[in-house]
């Protein structure tokens, strides 16, 4: 925990203008940054703060709750210090794109493809951005909150038939 505190202090010192929020929740530090700085922040945490492992990349759909509809979430782990930190970056629906974290962590590749497939967020400079779970001809992004519950062109579920 002390190492994460130092990492957050270093981030605040180097990226003060890019940090939107810093909070601690149940022992985990969560830092929200402007999406334009996501690669610089991730690379800094990797090289300067020993957060050498990107363990997860996902998104949250806040449909109708905030100006920026989506929130990208990156979970980093410091194996050396047995610590973690969560980095978040808001993404608007009108400009639904962010730089690919593969520039800092190769492990982001398939995780970003999953987010692209299910949420429709585009990752600039991604080496192979294409669907990974849904078929290439699938219409829409199933984890968006405004996606039809039964999928496109499907008859509504009627429950168990007796």
Unreliable residue stretches: none
Shape: globular
> Rg, please?
18 Å
> Which bin fits the share of residues in helices?
10-25%
Structural class of the secondary elements?
Answer: alpha/beta
Order of adjacent strands in the largest pleated sheet: 1-2-5-4-3
Intertermini distance: 56 Å
Sheet with most strands = 5 strands, mixed
Q: What is the β-strand count?
A: 7
Describe the structure.
With 162 residues, the protein is α/β, with parallel strands linked by helices. It has helices at 2-14, 38-48, 108-119, and strands at residues 19-25, 28-33, 53-61, 70-78, 83-91, 97-99, 122-124. The protein has a 5-stranded mixed beta sheet. The protein has a two-stranded parallel ribbon with strand order 6-7. The longest helix has 13 residues, at 2-14. The radius of gyration is 18 Å and the shape is globular. The N and C termini lie far apart (56 Å).
């Amino acid at each position: 925990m002390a190492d994460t505190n130092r990492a957050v202090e270093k981030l605040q010192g180097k990226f003060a203008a890019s940090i939107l929020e810093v909070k601690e929740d149940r022992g985990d530090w969560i830092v929200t940054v402007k999406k334009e700085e996501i690669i610089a922040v991730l690379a800094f945490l990797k090289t300067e703060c020993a957060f050498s492992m990107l363990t997860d990349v996902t998104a949250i759909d806040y449909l109708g709750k905030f100006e920026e509809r989506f929130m990208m979430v990156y979970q980093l782990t410091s194996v050396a210090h047995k610590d973690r930190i969560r980095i978040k970056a808001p993404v608007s629906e009108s400009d639904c794109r962010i730089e690919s974290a593969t520039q800092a962590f190769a492990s982001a590749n398939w995780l970003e493809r999953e987010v692209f497939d299910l949420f429709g967020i585009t990752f600039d400079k991604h080496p192979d951005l294409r669907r990974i779970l849904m078929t290439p001809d699938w219409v829409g992004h199933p984890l968006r909150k405004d996606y039809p519950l039964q999928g496109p062109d499907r008859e509504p579920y009627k429950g168990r038939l007796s």
